[in-house]
Design brief:
Layout: H1 5-28, H2 38-45, H3 49-55, H4 59-79, H5 88-105, H6 107-113, H7 120-144, H8 153-175, H9 180-194
Protein backbone atom coordinates (compact mmCIF):
# COMPACT_ATOMS: atom_id res chain seq x y z
CA UNK A 1 0.00 0.00 0.00
CA UNK A 2 2.93 2.36 0.68
CA UNK A 3 5.04 1.16 -2.27
CA UNK A 4 4.71 4.48 -4.05
CA UNK A 5 5.96 6.61 -1.17
CA UNK A 6 9.73 6.24 -1.71
CA UNK A 7 9.35 7.17 -5.38
CA UNK A 8 7.15 10.13 -4.49
CA UNK A 9 9.64 11.24 -1.84
CA UNK A 10 12.52 10.99 -4.31
CA UNK A 11 10.58 12.97 -6.92
CA UNK A 12 9.76 15.68 -4.36
CA UNK A 13 13.40 15.80 -3.28
CA UNK A 14 14.59 16.12 -6.87
CA UNK A 15 12.06 18.89 -7.47
CA UNK A 16 13.35 20.81 -4.46
CA UNK A 17 16.99 20.37 -5.48
CA UNK A 18 16.15 21.64 -8.96
CA UNK A 19 14.34 24.62 -7.41
CA UNK A 20 17.41 25.44 -5.31
CA UNK A 21 19.70 25.17 -8.32
CA UNK A 22 17.38 27.37 -10.34
CA UNK A 23 17.22 29.94 -7.55
CA UNK A 24 21.01 29.98 -7.33
CA UNK A 25 21.19 30.67 -11.08
CA UNK A 26 18.88 33.66 -10.62
CA UNK A 27 20.84 35.06 -7.70
CA UNK A 28 24.17 34.63 -9.48
CA UNK A 29 22.81 36.86 -12.24
CA UNK A 30 22.20 39.57 -9.63
CA UNK A 31 25.03 39.29 -7.10
CA UNK A 32 28.56 38.01 -6.79
CA UNK A 33 28.91 34.44 -5.62
CA UNK A 34 30.50 35.39 -2.29
CA UNK A 35 27.51 37.60 -1.46
CA UNK A 36 25.02 34.73 -1.56
CA UNK A 37 24.18 32.32 1.26
CA UNK A 38 22.23 29.09 1.24
CA UNK A 39 19.51 30.87 3.20
CA UNK A 40 19.26 33.41 0.36
CA UNK A 41 18.90 30.61 -2.16
CA UNK A 42 16.24 28.84 -0.09
CA UNK A 43 14.26 32.07 0.25
CA UNK A 44 14.38 32.68 -3.50
CA UNK A 45 13.31 29.08 -4.17
CA UNK A 46 10.45 29.32 -1.65
CA UNK A 47 11.83 26.35 0.27
CA UNK A 48 12.30 26.21 4.07
CA UNK A 49 15.95 26.72 4.97
CA UNK A 50 15.87 23.49 6.99
CA UNK A 51 15.05 21.63 3.76
CA UNK A 52 17.88 23.41 1.94
CA UNK A 53 20.34 22.29 4.61
CA UNK A 54 19.02 18.76 4.20
CA UNK A 55 20.35 18.80 0.62
CA UNK A 56 23.46 20.99 0.99
CA UNK A 57 25.77 21.67 3.91
CA UNK A 58 26.36 25.21 2.61
CA UNK A 59 26.14 27.30 -0.54
CA UNK A 60 29.57 26.07 -1.68
CA UNK A 61 28.26 22.52 -1.90
CA UNK A 62 25.33 23.80 -3.96
CA UNK A 63 27.72 25.68 -6.26
CA UNK A 64 29.70 22.47 -6.80
CA UNK A 65 26.58 20.72 -8.05
CA UNK A 66 25.47 23.69 -10.12
CA UNK A 67 28.83 24.08 -11.88
CA UNK A 68 28.60 20.42 -12.93
CA UNK A 69 25.26 21.18 -14.58
CA UNK A 70 26.63 24.32 -16.24
CA UNK A 71 29.72 22.53 -17.57
CA UNK A 72 27.50 19.84 -19.08
CA UNK A 73 25.39 22.52 -20.79
CA UNK A 74 28.50 24.20 -22.19
CA UNK A 75 29.75 20.89 -23.53
CA UNK A 76 26.40 20.26 -25.21
CA UNK A 77 26.76 23.57 -27.05
CA UNK A 78 30.31 22.71 -28.12
CA UNK A 79 29.68 19.12 -29.22
CA UNK A 80 27.16 20.09 -31.91
CA UNK A 81 28.42 19.25 -35.42
CA UNK A 82 30.53 21.84 -37.23
CA UNK A 83 30.36 22.06 -40.99
CA UNK A 84 33.48 22.13 -43.20
CA UNK A 85 35.87 24.98 -42.39
CA UNK A 86 39.00 26.27 -44.11
CA UNK A 87 41.41 25.15 -41.41
CA UNK A 88 41.69 24.03 -37.82
CA UNK A 89 42.11 27.62 -36.61
CA UNK A 90 38.71 28.52 -38.05
CA UNK A 91 37.28 25.50 -36.25
CA UNK A 92 38.76 26.70 -32.95
CA UNK A 93 37.11 30.05 -33.67
CA UNK A 94 33.70 28.41 -34.04
CA UNK A 95 34.10 26.57 -30.73
CA UNK A 96 35.21 29.71 -28.87
CA UNK A 97 32.30 31.68 -30.35
CA UNK A 98 29.92 28.99 -29.09
CA UNK A 99 31.46 29.15 -25.63
CA UNK A 100 31.27 32.96 -25.59
CA UNK A 101 27.60 32.86 -26.56
CA UNK A 102 26.87 30.33 -23.80
CA UNK A 103 28.60 32.46 -21.17
CA UNK A 104 26.89 35.63 -22.40
CA UNK A 105 23.50 33.95 -22.00
CA UNK A 106 24.26 32.35 -18.60
CA UNK A 107 25.57 34.77 -15.96
CA UNK A 108 25.74 31.95 -13.40
CA UNK A 109 28.29 30.19 -15.61
CA UNK A 110 30.34 33.38 -15.83
CA UNK A 111 30.38 33.64 -12.06
CA UNK A 112 31.23 30.04 -11.24
CA UNK A 113 33.51 29.16 -14.15
CA UNK A 114 35.33 32.40 -15.01
CA UNK A 115 35.10 35.05 -12.30
CA UNK A 116 38.08 35.83 -10.06
CA UNK A 117 36.08 35.41 -6.85
CA UNK A 118 35.00 31.86 -7.70
CA UNK A 119 35.62 29.59 -4.67
CA UNK A 120 38.72 27.42 -5.32
CA UNK A 121 36.83 24.13 -4.84
CA UNK A 122 34.28 25.16 -7.48
CA UNK A 123 37.02 26.29 -9.85
CA UNK A 124 38.83 22.95 -9.46
CA UNK A 125 35.62 21.12 -10.35
CA UNK A 126 35.20 23.22 -13.49
CA UNK A 127 38.85 22.71 -14.45
CA UNK A 128 38.30 18.95 -14.34
CA UNK A 129 35.35 19.39 -16.71
CA UNK A 130 37.60 21.39 -19.03
CA UNK A 131 39.54 18.18 -19.65
CA UNK A 132 36.42 16.68 -21.23
CA UNK A 133 35.72 19.92 -23.09
CA UNK A 134 39.20 19.88 -24.60
CA UNK A 135 38.57 16.32 -25.74
CA UNK A 136 35.47 17.47 -27.63
CA UNK A 137 37.59 20.05 -29.46
CA UNK A 138 40.11 17.35 -30.40
CA UNK A 139 37.25 15.29 -31.82
CA UNK A 140 36.05 18.22 -33.94
CA UNK A 141 39.52 18.64 -35.46
CA UNK A 142 39.98 14.91 -35.93
CA UNK A 143 36.66 14.76 -37.80
CA UNK A 144 37.90 17.14 -40.51
CA UNK A 145 41.69 17.02 -40.49
CA UNK A 146 44.54 14.55 -40.10
CA UNK A 147 46.66 15.66 -37.17
CA UNK A 148 50.28 14.62 -36.70
CA UNK A 149 51.31 12.41 -33.82
CA UNK A 150 51.69 14.73 -30.84
CA UNK A 151 52.96 13.37 -27.50
CA UNK A 152 50.56 14.14 -24.66
CA UNK A 153 48.11 15.73 -27.09
CA UNK A 154 45.21 15.82 -24.63
CA UNK A 155 47.23 17.94 -22.21
CA UNK A 156 48.03 20.42 -24.97
CA UNK A 157 44.37 20.84 -25.90
CA UNK A 158 43.46 21.23 -22.24
CA UNK A 159 45.99 24.06 -21.96
CA UNK A 160 44.46 25.70 -25.04
CA UNK A 161 41.04 25.65 -23.36
CA UNK A 162 42.53 27.19 -20.23
CA UNK A 163 44.11 29.93 -22.35
CA UNK A 164 40.69 30.87 -23.74
CA UNK A 165 39.19 30.76 -20.23
CA UNK A 166 41.91 33.13 -19.05
CA UNK A 167 41.01 35.72 -21.68
CA UNK A 168 37.30 35.34 -20.92
CA UNK A 169 38.03 35.84 -17.22
CA UNK A 170 40.18 38.90 -17.92
CA UNK A 171 37.35 40.38 -19.98
CA UNK A 172 34.96 39.98 -17.06
CA UNK A 173 37.52 41.43 -14.66
CA UNK A 174 38.39 44.43 -16.81
CA UNK A 175 35.05 45.22 -18.45
CA UNK A 176 32.39 43.33 -16.50
CA UNK A 177 31.32 41.50 -19.66
CA UNK A 178 32.62 39.33 -22.47
CA UNK A 179 33.70 41.91 -25.03
CA UNK A 180 33.92 40.76 -28.66
CA UNK A 181 37.49 42.05 -28.81
CA UNK A 182 38.46 39.82 -25.88
CA UNK A 183 36.73 36.83 -27.48
CA UNK A 184 38.96 37.46 -30.50
CA UNK A 185 41.97 37.60 -28.18
CA UNK A 186 40.93 34.23 -26.76
CA UNK A 187 40.96 32.78 -30.27
CA UNK A 188 44.40 34.22 -30.99
CA UNK A 189 45.82 32.96 -27.71
CA UNK A 190 44.47 29.42 -28.10
CA UNK A 191 45.49 29.15 -31.73
CA UNK A 192 48.96 30.58 -31.08
CA UNK A 193 49.55 27.99 -28.37
CA UNK A 194 48.21 25.08 -30.43
CA UNK A 195 50.25 26.36 -33.38
CA UNK A 196 53.40 25.45 -31.46
CA UNK A 197 52.41 21.80 -31.94
CA UNK A 198 50.08 21.68 -34.94
CA UNK A 199 51.04 22.79 -38.48
CA UNK A 200 48.87 25.61 -39.74
CA UNK A 201 47.79 23.59 -42.76
CA UNK A 202 46.59 20.06 -42.10
CA UNK A 203 45.48 17.52 -44.71
CA UNK A 204 41.73 16.99 -44.88
CA UNK A 205 40.09 13.69 -44.21
Amino acid sequence: MNAGRPANTQARGRKRRDALLGAARQLLAERESDQITLVDVAARAGIPKSSAYHFYADVLELYNELVTVLDAELQQSIVRPIGPVEGWEALIGVVIDRAALYFAEHPAAQQLMLASQTPPAVKRSSRRADIMTSGLIEQHIDAQFVMPDIPDRSRIFFHAVEAADLMFGLSLFQYGALKPSMVEEAKKMSCAYLGLYIPRFLPRR
